[in-house]
Amino acid sequence: MHFSFGSLVFAFVSLFVTPIVLPDAEIILDPDTNVLSCSVESIMASTNPQTNVVYSWILGSNTGTGLSFEVTEPGQLILVAYDEVLDCTNSTTITILENTDEPNISILEPSPINCFNGSVEIDGSFSAASPNITFQWLDDDGQIIPGATNPLLDNVSQEGTYYLTAIDTENGCESIDSVELISDLNPPMIDAGADFILPCSPQQGSVLGSMDIAESNAEISWTNEAGDVIAANFLNAEILEPGMYFFNVSSTINGCSSIDSLEVGVAELGEVLFESNVPDCPGDENGFISIDVSGTQNPPVNVNFQGEDVGLMTEFSSLTAGTYAITVSDAFNCSLDTNYVITSANDFSLSLGDDQMVDFNEEVPLLADTDAVGAGFMWSPVDGLSCVDCPDPIATASTSITYTVVVTDENGCTKEASISLTVDTSNSVGIFVPNVFAPNEGNENGFFYIQGNAAVFLIEEFAIFDRWGNQVFSANDIQPNDPNAGWDGTFNGEELLAGVYSYYAKLSVLDGLRTIKGDITLIR
């Protein structure tokens, strides 16, 4: 519109302002809850689509875009809606909660089923209590026990594993626990003992029962055939006459009872026979004694051999000649005592005399002094002996040694003796090294070598040096007294000048190792 006012002209312009509408950021939850639980493990969050609007989801460190977002953990769920045309943003925040607490189950250990109690109760009443929690008992096969919806399960008469389940109807969480119900219906394992016979004299005996429970946990009695109690609260009872006797035991732990019986008679020992042999040689341990107890009337038979109870053992071997104390008794104290003699074969003597100190390579006469008839001799070791199957060999001792002789008589019996010869090494080793040699003479004097007596065994190392310390000859593991193993006065095939040289040698001798050093003069 235009209008004028004097020389002024006015124009009017109309402006229309459209209000800005923010994009919708509504969060729709499926299922319609913001609580994660055992029955709701995930929630699908979504929103309604709008033109030109994009959506972003944020839940902790997890993000996403689009119209939906799966929620699997608690936290602050944020939806951001952005209008790309209007450049406007809107957001909505929902708190996601979590309730996954399982109901607590506590079952007390039940008492066992026994002879006192044919049925027991299983108490789970200390489990979590809430109007939202339901209970159900299951049997050993995992099957529902009808009507057992109370945490206290009573009148249970069968052993096995029982399960209690608890379900929280508010969050769908479930717990299960089990308890083992055992039965103790086993009667005591008892033994009244074996039937027995009253001893020969006096006619008196006792019984001793045994059981697998402690006496403090048992009620015990012994009764006779008439039912009379002859002993109470003891495992043993005195018996004065034959007959049937009963051992009665009741457990105070489970109320179960057992009874066992035995028969008592009167007896005598019967016949006992002995057999033995004579050992082949003096000191031989090949004698034996055999006891025949088959004629005894009241087994089991007990044998005491040389003061030691050996029970039913009746064969004794590896015995020497001598007297053996033997007692044979039966279960009723009837016994036979004897000192049984195993006779001895003829013995013989043997002596080699005292040990001796001898000189190196000294000839020493040895003598096996014996009275054995038809004796044979065998000496060992054979080193240094003039004979090995004679009574009087000559021993030549080059080193300390112990000789043993075994003598066998006409019956094949043997005996041995030993004697030790100790060699005095103080003056035994003889070593000779020349101090001058002339290699041009063409005989033994033309070699420089080490000489020794029989007490020198080996030259392990032999070396010669000139005056400047240079080695001009060496040899290892050579024999003494061998000129060809010595030095001929050359080095690398060339004759050396006359002069003084030094030598070094290590020798194996009777008393160990010896090292010698010195000078040798080479002349030409």
Distance between the termini: 157 Å
Structural class: mainly beta
User: Looking across the biggest beta sheet, what order are the strands in?
Assistant: 4-10-9-6-7
Broad shape: flat
Main β-sheet: number of strands, strand sense, barrel status? 5 strands, mixed
* Record field, number of beta strands: 50
Fraction of residues in H or I helices: under 10%
Number of helices: 0
Beta-sheet strand percentage? Answer: over 45%
**Mean pLDDT across residues:** 90
Radius of gyration over all CA atoms, rounded:
57 Å
Model regions low in confidence, pLDDT < 50 over at least 5 residues: 1-16
Q: SSE layout and pairings?
A:
Layout: E1 2-5, E2 8-11, E3 28-30, E4 35-37, E5 43-46, E6 53-59, E7 62-65, E8 68-71, E9 75-83, E10 88-99, E11 113-114, E12 120-123, E13 133-138, E14 152-156, E15 160-168, E16 174-181, E17 183-184, E18 190-191, E19 196-198, E20 205-208, E21 210-211, E22 218-224, E23 229-232, E24 236-239, E25 243-251, E26 257-266, E27 270-276, E28 287-296, E29 302-305, E30 308-311, E31 315-319, E32 322-329, E33 335-342, E34 350-351, E35 356-359, E36 362-365, E37 369-370, E38 376-380, E39 394-397, E40 401-408, E41 414-424, E42 431-432, E43 436-437, E44 451-452, E45 456-465, E46 471-478, E47 490-491, E48 494-495, E49 499-509, E50 512-522
Parallel strand pairs: 4-10, 11-17, 19-26, 35-41, 43-50
Antiparallel strand pairs: 1-2, 3-5, 5-8, 6-7, 6-9, 9-10, 12-14, 13-15, 15-16, 18-21, 20-24, 22-23, 22-25, 25-26, 27-28, 28-31, 29-30, 29-32, 32-33, 34-37, 36-39, 38-40, 40-41, 42-44, 45-46, 45-49, 47-48, 49-50
